[in-house]
Amino acid sequence: MLKRGRPDGPIKLITLGNGPYPRPDDPCSGFLLQAGGANVLIDIGGGVLGQLQRYIQLEDLHAVWISHMHADHFADMPLLYYAFAFSQKRLRKIPILGPVGWAERVEAFVKSSVDHKMSSYFQVVELKDRGIAEIGDLRIQARAVEHGVPAFGLTARYGERRLAYTGDSGPCDNLVALARGARALVAECFATDIEIPSVHLTPEDAGLVATQAEATRLVLTHLSLGLSQEEAVDRAATTYGGLIEVAVTGTVIEG
């Protein structure tokens, strides 16, 4: 049980991976959110579960938050179920927060001669726009975004510190709302210039969101294939005048 107290100290987001498919040194999308002793896994794409255990043991995980159910953000969830179901010692039930139907999707994937229920090992929570989760003194608010499927970005707050993550999304008003005043906006930029309809951000889109939200700095992640880090930063700088960096596996982002 996490103890509540007076929030003090940084809020950190450790990049576990950000690729559209797992590569030897770069799993799919996933981040470890840490503040006040809380450990929350943000997205659980292919390869993320193994990378997570470089930083914490599974028994020290307090919650999982899933932005949407595309494989590059969700594929390791059945494996997390196996990790809890087959653990040599009983792990405490932690909340898994994801779009409506996430539990049934995993149950169908792991079904065998018997039904496997997520509720046997997890607290099943379904996200909704503006819904708030509290893990100790860490407060996470979901905002619905535009991705062609039910999808959410988030704002994480710890005391006076705020950090925002877009998940996967095309330009929309809720991105500005979730990023407003954040010390760091972590924004995907997987869109190509000809993507119609727009369900991802270009670097220019990400920069514009950061500018409109008055975010202190912009961290680009989930870059489109063929887009170099240098080009991504240069393009984002045409719409945003603050500090810009690119997250790679192992990057620690403080808010």
Radius of gyration: 17 Å
Determine the number of helices (DSSP H or I, runs of at least 4 residues): 7
The stretches of 5 or more residues where confidence is low (pLDDT under 50) are none
**What class, by secondary structure content?**
alpha/beta
Tally the beta strands: 14
List the helices and strands in order: EEEHEHHEHEEEEEHEHEHEE
Just give the CATH class. Alpha Beta
Would you tell me the overall average pLDDT?
A: 95
- CATH superfamily (homologous) name: Ribonuclease Z/Hydroxyacylglutathione hydrolase-like
What percent of residues are in strands? 25-35%
Strands across the major sheet, in which order? 6-5-4-3-2-1-14
CATH architecture title: 4-Layer Sandwich
Q: Estimate the global geometry from the Cα principal axes.
A: globular
Q: How would you describe this structure to a colleague?
A:
With 255 residues, this protein is α/β, with parallel strands linked by helices. It has a single domain (12-254), classed as 4-Layer Sandwich (Metallo-beta-lactamase, Chain A). The protein is built from seven helices and 14 strands. It has helices at residues 48-52, 71-74, 77-85, 102-110, 173-179, 203-213, 229-236, and strands at residues 12-17, 30-35, 38-42, 63-65, 94-98, 122-126, 132-135, 138-144, 152-158, 161-165, 184-188, 217-221, 243-246, 252-254. The strands form two sheets. Strands 6-5-4-3-2-1-14 form a seven-stranded mixed beta sheet. Helix 5 packs across helix 6 (203-213).
